[in-house]
Amino acid sequence: QVQLVESGGGSVQAGASLGLSCVVLGRTLSTYSMAWFRQALGTDREFVGAISWNGANAQVADSVKGRFTISKDSAANTVYLRMNDLKPEDTAVYYCAAYQTPQSNVVVTTRNWDLYEYWGQGTQVTVSS
User: Fold this and answer.
1) What is the phi/psi pair of residue 90, to 5°?
2) Three-state helix/strand/coil letters over the chain
3) In whole angstroms, what is the distance from residue 89 CA to residue 126 CA?
4) Cβ–Cβ under 8 Å, residues 125 and 10
5) Average pLDDT for consecutive 10-residue bins of the chain (129 residues)?
6) From residue 73, how far is each of 21, 51, 58, 112, 119 by CA, in Å?
7) Cβ atoms 57, 71 nearer than 8 A
């Protein structure tokens, strides 16, 4: 089985930066598109970005484009979300998720979170104005 473990959340002032990490643990017999979602209190889960298993292809949502960057260290089996110029509306629990793909260069950007096979427990990001 595969486990995803997020870390790096915290409480910061608006304009600050944070880096989140998602470590992929366990035996990975397949390749996955790795995604970041976030969910603010009382809201729907929102797609933030995704990256292909080989790290070559990445996409981020328009709402965070230019501020957030997703990357992957394949040797460390770790996916990163670098968040710059944080705003109060970025406050949410951030989750990483894995979507099985037939090829390592495929990036999946579906907003249907039910299609993702694995989820981390989430890490809280709080941005104060």
Assistant:
1) -80, -10
2) CEEEEEECCEEEECCCCEEEEEEEEECCCCEEEEEEEEECCCCCCEEEEEECCCCCCEEECCCCCCCEEEEEECCCCEEEEEECCCCHHHCEEEEEEEEEECCCCCCCCCCCHHHCCEECCCEEEEEEC
3) 9
4) yes
5) 95 98 89 97 96 96 97 93 98 97 95 94 97
6) 10, 11, 13, 25, 19
7) no
